[in-house]
Amino acid sequence: MGAESFFIHAKAINAQIDTNKFITLLSSNDYIVEHNIRYNVPWYAINGILKLQFSLENASLQGFSLEGCFSWYDESLELIYQIVKLINDKLMPIEIDQPVSMESKKLLDKERFLNTVRGFYEGKYKYFSDLFKGARFKSLPDKDFYNEYKRRKSPLFKILNVFKGK
What we know:
The protein has 6 helices and 6 strands; from the N terminus they run E-H-E-E-E-E-H-E-H-H-H-H. Helix content is 42%, strand content 26%.
């Protein structure tokens, strides 16, 4: 996780679930789920803006993390809440163990969840905004963000956008 991203981690509570059930639930609820491997580590892209990774023990799901990019912060954070709520309601009980500032490990109501995560990452988000001049575009975190940021800063991109009327 670099300067461009934030994440939450949730752990499964007394559940023996495999990752296929998790992915099937997301896909059946109209989320676009794409499998990827980077640095020999499997992960999933959700709707092209979140990175999903599983914590496994003996092929059993112990928890998961969802990482979003500050360049699409509000939308990514909303999507994270929707996903953790869906998983908690339909698949398995979970506790949020990251960010550590969660006053309760149980899933909070939406506004308290969003405010808690925003409060935890407030300083990092400000640093991101200052460093990247308020960059605002859809992107996955990590290299995807940096590649897109670099592309958008290129003179050719700026010229093409003038002709597109943007």
